[in-house]
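Let us work through a complete example step by step.
Step 1: write down the sequence.
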Amino acid sequence: MGPRVGRVGSEREDRAIRVVVVDDEQLVRSGLRMILGAAPDIEVVADCAGGQAVDTVLAQRPDVVMLDIRMPDVDGLTVLNQLTAALGERLPAVTMLTTFDTDEYLATALRAGASGFLLKDTEPEQLAQAVRVLAAGGSTLDPGVARTVIGGYVEGAGGSEQAKRAVEGLTDREREVLVLLGQGLSNAEIAAGLHLAHGTVKDHVSALLGKLGGLNRVQAAVIAERAGLVAGRAGERRHPV
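Step 2: predict the structure and record it as tokens.
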């Protein structure tokens, strides 16, 4: 899947972040709606079960979709693939919700283009901050699932030597941007850190993701860690990646 830098939500006007919550349990949906709705800059425009997810997202065109990875009617991976097929580059940021820190589907969702992963017992203030990061073009990777995601992705994507070869074709500036991306910074934060224009950073991110094979930001963060560009495990430095 190609890079989705600058997609819906990264250049929003000054308005509330529009969120759709998809989960098979009404209680979970109501809880997330209440938590996120308490934030003045976030609006949950719809919530639904998996079977209504695609139609709901297409109708609402949210900035962020919070998508349960395991649902009995239509699982989250199927929904994610259907949304990607329908929207392409216009796909909103999608973060997968799970109750399991060892969920074997997480790495598959990463390859399918998920922008992040959150445990359902994440603290309320962290949920709201994760939505803001996603809407700004960043990614989220809960520390509780980071090792599972990274381990599963690396098994299918090669180890450190392959990651080092992957970054060899980057320019010095693209490598600098990748390091900061791997630390979990949004485009705006990278721009501030490198004293660059926001648009310039977007161009660098788009270029480096393309050179890395059309990865998304979470996948690129994993490559940065595997290549030795970022100390520690990707996603464990900050809650929103």
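Step 3: interpret the result. The chain has eleven helices and six strands.
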